[in-house]
Design brief:
Layout: E1 2-8, H1 12-23, E2 28-31, H2 36-40, E3 47-48, H3 50-58, H4 63-68, E4 70-72, E5 74-79, E6 82-87, H5 88-92, E7 96-98, H6 101-114, E8 118-120, E9 124-129, E10 137-142, E11 145-156, H7 164-167, E12 174-189, E13 199-202, E14 208-214, E15 217-224, H8 235-245, H9 248-253, E16 259-273, E17 276-277, E18 280-282, E19 288-289, H10 297-318, H11 322-325, H12 327-349, H13 357-372, H14 374-385
Parallel strand pairs: 1-2, 1-11, 2-8, 5-13, 11-18
Antiparallel strand pairs: 3-7, 4-7, 5-6, 9-10, 10-11, 12-15, 12-16, 13-14, 14-15, 16-19, 17-18
Helix pairs in contact: 1-6, 1-10, 10-12, 13-14
The structure holds 8-demethyl-8-dimethylamino-flavin-adenine-dinucleotide and P-hydroxybenzoic acid.
8-demethyl-8-dimethylamino-flavin-adenine-dinucleotide binds near residues 123 and 160.
Keywords: FAD, Flavoprotein
Pfam families: FAD_binding_3
GO molecular function: 4-hydroxybenzoate 3-monooxygenase activity; FAD binding
Length: about 400
Amino acid sequence: MRTQVAIIGGGPSGLLLSQLLHRKGIDTIVLERKTRDYVLGRIRAGILETGFVDLMREAGVSERMDKESFVHDGTVIAFGNEQFQVNFTEHTGTPVVVYGQTEVTRDLYDAREAMDGKIVFNVENVEIHDADSDAPYVTYSVDGREERIDCDFVAGCDGFHGVSRQTIPLSVRKEYEKVYPFGWLGVLSETPPVHDELIYANSDRGFALCSMRNANLSRYYIQCSLSDDVEDWTDQMFWNELKRRIPEEAAEKLVTGPSIEKSIAPLRSFVTEPMRWGRLFLCGDAAHIVPPTGAKGLNTAASDIHYLYHGLLQYFEEGDSEGIDRYSEKALARIWKAERFSWWMTNLLHRFPDQTEFDIKMQLADLTFLRDNREAQSVLAQNYVGLPY
Ligand code: RFL
Ligand code: PHB
């Protein structure tokens, strides 16, 4: 088989790239290790920057999103019983959009199928060969058959545990990592959200977040210990703990119900440099991870796709390699700022095991400064709605 761009990974990054390129007549094949249902079963991000929304429009997959998503002009930050709003639209002229990653992925799969896009599911033993030559190729097995795809470029969109990043030799690759000493326990429940905007809460008992998917689907998170077993957290224990971490006013209004999904995610900051090796390009979680506190995971994946898509277009349509040559530099410049923002939000809002009373006073000073200072709120707003591409 031959294609122009072999895409490893059928998550949001790989699907979006495939869809954008296909609409410009550039051929791709997506290789996905799991099934479509498995990918759609993963409950992850919920907040889209307008840059992401624009990319979905450019990909021709925004119809349902435009109808069903919710626009949020701001967010609530709480500490103890105090709370204040940071208004994004007032500070930046831009809101954010609430639309789950599951829905984004479903829309992209539907669009790929409607265009007869080639996606191979259940692939195993994916290997990228000769990425540093002019003739790269990918081998894999599916249903017991060995297959080979020759291509011009390989896009490594296979997430943090994928093979693409490992293909770059250690002599070339440098990784930067910070692992946080806690996780997030998330619950999805068919209940009305407690508030019409998100609430990020710092409390003595640890962080909590009230988010949502729609008018009758809430998503809540609480900071938990990494040694916790999700099975030990009954729904009742979760709701009780959440109520103790958010302002009383919100706790009193909270509607509880059975969880329809419950999981624990570890928190990590991670960047690999460079994001290009020869004809292999890393995108999204394959290249970088942020703690979810700033809602940047999916959104940084989208900015990578934006840079790579335009670079590939420039190459295939104009024969100019400037865009792909500068891909790593452009993507990383934006990513490090999103890493900083996510790290800052995480530090501002969580309880750390080794935190001293002094450290807690510093958090409180940071929070009250943010509450009282327009410029500080503007900085948060600019980062939250997404820095320019
Ligand atoms: P994905 O979504 O991980 O997709 C990668 C795809 O590649 C497949 N794959 C392979 N395919 C072929 N061959 C191989 N060798 C392969 N290895 C892996 C995988 O099956 C998968 O389908 O990466 P992508 O597309 O870059 O998208 C990135 C986003 O998914 C990610 O940034 C966010 O979901 C991060 N994230 C969150 N971000 C937020 O903004 N808000 C959140 O609340 C939030 N929650 C989360 C998250 C990530 C989590 N992970 C990775 C465990 C919660 C979790 C649990
Ligand atoms: C979510 O709704 O899942 C969500 C929202 C905001 C975050 C993280 C997760 O910062």
